[in-house]
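hiii so um. not sure if this is the right channel but i have a protein structure encoded as C-alpha cells and i wanna go backwards to a sequence. like what aa goes where. can anyone help
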C-alpha cells in the first residue's frame, strides 16, 4: 500500500455519461473503506482551477447509483488548456493537501491529464466515462450501454411510424468522431444502413442500397447516421439529396441529440462504474499513476493513458459485415 496517498480528489469532465455518479460513489466509498480522505471537485478541470471543492464521505454519495448525469457536474474547460490555468489547478491541489486525482471522462479528459502530469508530476488515474466508447484498452466505457439502449428504444418507436407510413427515416445519433453508437444501435434496431465517421460509404452506394431495399419489398427504412459521419454531416442536406434522387421514398429526419446522454444508468453501467471506481483507488494505493482503468474480457486492467488514446478508427469490421448481412 502506498502510504503517501492520504487524500484523493475526484472529478467528472467532458460530456456527462450515465453511470458517472456510480463511479464517483465507488471512488468515495473505496476511500472511506481504506480510511483515505476524499474531495469532490465540481465542474471538472474548471472547478479544479477555481478551487471548487467539497469534502465527501461514504454518506455523501447515498442514493446516486441510479441517477443519470453527474452530481459533481461537468465542464469543457478552456482554461485548463492554458499553462496558467493548469498552474492554478496544481496550486489548489497542493494547498488542500490532495495527493492524487481520479478523473472520470473521455479521451479529451485523459489528454488533459497527461499534459497536467507532464508539467506537475501529479499522480492521476483515469476512469473512462463517455457514451462514445472511443477509448482504447477497454472493452466498454461507462455510459455507452445506457446510451445504446436509449437509442434503440427511440429507433424502435420511429420504426413503428415509419412502417405505418412506408417512410424512410434518417436518424442522427451522437458520435462526433466515433461510430460505435451508430453501428451497434443500428444493428440492434435493424437499420437498413449505418453511416459512421470511420468509413465513408459514399452517396452513390447509399442510394443503390436504398433502391435495393425498396425493391426487396421492405415497407420502411431506417438509416442511422453518426453525427461525425462524412456524407451525413449535414443530415438535412443528405435527406434532400435522397429526395432528389429516389422519388419512391418519402424521407423524414430525426436528430436524437442530448436525450442520448441522459437517463438512469443500466445495471451494466452501474456495475462497470463501481468496478472501475474501486479499481482507480486500488491503482493509486498500489503506487500506480498515469493509467486508465479498463475492462478487457471482463477483467479490470490498468492501461497507460497514452495507450488509451490510440483508438482512432478502431472499429470492428465484422460488425459492419453483420450489419450488411442482417439488413438484406
Ligand atoms: N490538449 C489538452 N490540454 C489540456 N486540457 C485538455 C486537452 N484536451 C482536452 N483537455 C481538457 O479535457 C476536457 C474534456 O475534454 P473533451 O471536451 O474532449 O471531452 P472528453 O473527455 O473527450 O469527453 P466526451 O468526448 O465524452 O465529451 C476539455 O474541456 C479540456 O479542459
Ligand atoms: O453538446 P456537447 O456537450 O458539446 O457534446 C456533444 C458531443 O459529446 C458527445 O456526446 C460525447 O459526450 C459526442 O458524441 C458529441 O459530439
Ligand atoms: Mg471525447
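sure thing!! here u go:
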Amino acid at each position: 500500500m502506498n502510504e503517501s496517498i492520504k487524500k484523493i480528489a475526484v472529478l467528472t469532465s467532458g460530456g456527462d455519461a450515465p453511470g458517472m455518479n456510480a463511479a464517483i460513489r465507488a471512488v468515495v466509498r473505496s476511500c472511506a473503506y481504506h480510511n483515505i480522505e476524499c474531495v469532490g471537485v465540481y465542474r471538472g478541470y474548471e472547478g479544479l482551477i477555481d478551487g471548487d471543492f467539497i469534502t465527501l464521505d461514504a454518506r455523501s454519495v447515498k442514493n446516486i447509483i441510479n441517477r443519470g448525469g453527474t452530481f459533481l457536474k461537468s465542464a469543457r474547460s478552456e482554461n485548463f488548456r492554458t499553462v496558467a490555468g493548469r498552474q492554478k489547478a496544481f496550486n489548489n491541489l497542493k494547498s488542500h493537501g490532495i495527493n492524487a486525482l481520479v478523473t472520470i471522462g473521455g479521451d479529451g479528459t485523459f489528454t488533459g491529464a497527461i499534459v497536467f502530469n507532464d508539467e506537475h508530476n501529479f499522480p492521476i488515474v483515469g476512469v473512462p466515462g463517455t457514451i462514445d466508447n472511443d477509448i482504447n484498452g477497454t472493452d466498454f466505457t461507462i455510459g455507452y450501454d445506457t446510451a445504446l439502449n436509449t437509442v434503440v428504444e427511440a429507433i424502435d418507436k420511429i420504426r413503428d411510424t415509419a412502417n405505418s407510413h412506408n417512410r424512410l427515416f434518417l436518424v442522427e445519433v451522437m458520435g462526433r468522431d466515433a461510430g460505435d453508437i451508430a453501428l451497434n444501435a443500428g444493428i440492434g434496431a435493424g437499420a437498413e444502413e449505418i453511416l459512421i465517421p470511420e468509413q465513408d460509404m459514399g452517396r452513390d452506394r447509399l442510394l443503390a442500397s436504398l433502391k435495393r431495399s425498396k425493391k426487396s419489398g421492405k415497407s420502411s427504412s431506417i438509416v442511422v447516421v453518426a453525427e461525425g459521419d462524412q456524407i451525413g454531416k449535414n443530415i438535412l442536406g443528405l435527406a434532400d439529396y435522397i429526395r432528389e434522387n429516389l422519388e419512391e421514398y418519402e424521407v423524414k429526419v430525426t436528430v436524437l441529440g442530448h436525450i442520448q446522454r441522459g437517463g438512469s444508468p443500466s445495471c451494466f453501467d452501474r456495475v462497470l462504474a463501481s468496478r472501475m471506481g474501486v479499481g482507480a483507488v486500488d491503482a493509486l494505493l498500489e503506487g500506480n499513476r498515469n493509467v486508465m482503468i479498463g475492462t478487457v474480457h471482463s477483467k479490470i486492467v490498468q492501461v497507460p493513458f497514452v495507450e488509451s488514446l490510440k483508438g482512432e478508427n478502431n472499429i470492428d469490421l465484422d460488425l459492419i459485415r453483420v450489419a450488411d448481412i442482417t439488413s438484406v
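oh and The chain has two domains: 7-143+265-308, 145-261.
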